[in-house]
Design goal:
8 helices, single chain, seven-stranded parallel beta sheet, alpha/beta
């Protein structure tokens, strides 16, 4: 049987820990062919080019998608332009790699761009940490990504309940807890 090609997307130092412990599991399994795709602030000098942490952890980055100019424009217009640049780059990645599954995290502009592009290109999406509420634009983005996603890995039973209230299939919702906990447990 051919391995399942998984594109795992990370965009920030904040979202990387949510998938960090998943990477070795996917890499070890012969059932998966993992491709790590980096975008967002990971690529910016201003934020320490945090993609280097992924490499330092021993993981291979397969593609980088630049979405921000060297000077970050965090205005509403700047975010809209960054969204379109990210979507354009992700579309090329999807076209070239032809993944069977995309893994996305949380609630940022790049997450929405990635999920939208995957949905338009018929790539099933696994969303990590949906169903949370904040009362900010992040919440709207998170819920939009939820509706584009096919599998939901939530941090709490309350988040799972919210997704069911949004009409998501309870058989596709998995309460796995907060992935940061895996990292905290490793700290001595």
């Amino acid at each position: 049987m051919k391995p399942i090609k998984v594109c795992l997307f990370t965009a920030t130092r904040a979202d990387y820990p949510r998938i960090k412990t998943l990477i070795p599991l996917l890499n070890k399994s012969k059932k998966f062919d993992l491709k790590i795709i980096v975008t967002g602030s990971h690529l910016l000098k201003k934020f320490g080019k945090s993609y280097k942490e992924i490499i330092k952890d021993g993981f291979k980055i397969h593609k980088k998608v630049k979405m921000f100019n060297s000077k970050l424009d965090d205005s509403l217009y700047g975010n809209a332009i960054s969204f379109s640049k990210c979507s354009n780059g992700i579309a090329k990645v999807i076209r070239d790699l032809k993944p069977d599954l995309a893994i996305v995290t949380v609630d940022r502009v790049e997450t929405l761009a990635i999920a939208s592009t995957c949905a338009l290109m018929n790539v099933p999406i696994a969303h990590v940490q949906g169903g949370e509420i904040t009362g900010t634009i992040d919440e709207s983005i998170r819920h939009a990504v939820t509706k584009l996603s096919h599998f939901h890995f939530v941090a709490t039973s309350l988040s799972a309940k919210r997704l069911m209230q949004m009409g998501e299939n309870k058989d596709k919702i998995f309460n796995v807890g907060c992935p940061y906990t895996d990292i905290l447990e490793d700290i001595k």
